[in-house]
Amino acid sequence: MCGLGLSLCLGKCCQFSSASCVRQELDERTLNLLCRRGPDHFERISFEMPVDAGRIVSFNLWAAVLSLRGDSICPQPARGSNGLLCFNGEIYNGLNIAPGMSDTAALLESLSSTSSPSAVAALISSLRGPWAFVYICQKSKKIYIGRDIFGRKCLLIRETPCGFQLTSVAYNHDSENENKWEEIPAQGVYVYDLLESSWALIRWNRAPSGSTDHNFAPCKALQHVALAKQRLTCPITAALRRELPKHSSEGDGVTDYGTLLEIYADKVMAFEEVLTKAVIRRVDNIPQRYAGIPIGILFSGGIDSTLIAAIAMKSYPDLTFDLINVAFEHEDSQRHLSFDTPDRCTSIEAFKELESLPCIDTSKARLICVDVPYDELQCSRAKSHVPRLVHPMTTVLDDSLGFALWFAARGRGREYRTAQPYESKARVLLLGMGADEQLGGYSRHAASFKGSSWSSLGDCIALDIDRISWRNLGRDDRIVADLGRESRTPFLDEDLVSFLNDLPLDLKMRLDLPRGVGDKLILRLLAYKMCLKETARRTKRALQFGSRIAHADPKKSRGHYVCNRLE
């Protein structure tokens, strides 16, 4: 993982040389934010490239590296025979990577063997896993940028008077004289032709739900992009099944999980296998030099995080796991200050349930209780560090979730068993994002189903899957990476999403059944199968309410309102 930055001056606004243009620098405060993302290595490369008669383009590249793959740290920006690469991501499939080799080195080696836009874009689109990248091909005089189809890694862009700038995270200046930073839409691979001074986009051939009529939505800096005829193959191999369920099925009216598990045993077993592989991909291949460092799991005690924890601990009995729960100080029903939030209570209950399972050794697992006093939250808000990371998102909900995630990812609290102070050293955090969108976990899904409208429900699920890339994952990447850790999301594994897309809607969710029973049905059946019977019936609670950070805002503004701290 890395933080990457690019500032490019096209030389058109400078009298002599673009190298003399002071506007090509990223702000020092932005560079400080980039440095926090990569504690293992930070480097800057500056160079010039003759483009055409009398015009020289000047580049500044920055990269901060958090090394998580390979036998040694791979410095970035990485130089190849054809150009330079900054890569922020993890490659789980789609590229042959020699043992001990880093993802970045393997990708650069493959990029060095080609220079045509179609071949470069096809190579990038074949990667499985989260990624954002910048590749400057000096041979063809083209710049390639992009994000994976779910937007799991962030990349921001803005225009400047002499060119444009890119960065993983940006310090917002609030200046009327500067263009605003925007997230690059995760719609394919963008190609900037230095000879023509023009953008082109090679789009995915379909959205993650399988829709082929998804709208192209450029950001302001890319509003004049031309759409290439070539299309990239979507990494999600199955389209969402939206056909209406049969009028009757074996599971109709059944609410007992034991009976439902007998009916759907084969599908639940197949789901367990795919989810287990998704978790293993995100824990495997961590270098031996980090042996003994725990794997972190953001842990609310809800069904998503508890299943991830159970599968991870069952798959890796020799590893240490930090299950991290965050709670914000609030007044309880007796008007006493307390950290006994709903999520704190469920995390303790779920941890005890995990301890009771004979198939899982929890002796190396720690439940980390992160308690955030009201005064510390207000002090953090006054310093505005977290709002810088949330930028360019602007709502009250972004603010609340940003602070909750930042304190949780910091992992500084007390160990539940011993009550001793503890700060996690985890470099990888497993998160449960993506389950609700696919499995009917939001209240809007129940609203769309009202009146047994399976068609409306299918449309709502498809919309949620397709807009994952621009809702919150870029924000979450900026938040977690600021603490020198990498977020990994098993529920957004390409094979897992393909598997779930191919399941009938009424096996994934039965919204005609009570809340806590029918929503995320297949996930609940898997939890029941793994003897997590209390977890299987636990209802969803949003992070901002479960952690009680929503109660720490005296204004009690609605989540979709613009937050004045983020303006």
Describe this structure in words.
There is one protein chain. The protein folds into two domains: 2-232, Glutamine Phosphoribosylpyrophosphate, subunit 1, domain 1 (4-Layer Sandwich); 257-552, HUPs (Rossmann fold, 3-Layer(aba) Sandwich). The radius of gyration is 24 Å and the shape is globular. Mean pLDDT is 91; it is low at 15-20. The two termini are 29 Å apart. It is α+β, with helices and mostly antiparallel strands and 567 residues long. Strands 4-5-6-7-11-12-13 form a seven-stranded mixed beta sheet, with helices on one face. Strand 6 and strand 7 (142-147) form a beta hairpin. The longest helix is centred in the middle third of the chain and has 19 residues, at 265-283.
The count of strands amounts to 22
* Mean pLDDT reading: 91
Count of separate structural domains: 2
User: What is the 3D shape?
Assistant: globular
Question: What is the name of the CATH superfamily of the largest domain?
Answer: HUPs
What's the architecture of the largest domain in CATH terms? 3-Layer(aba) Sandwich
- Ends apart, CA distance between termini: 29 Å
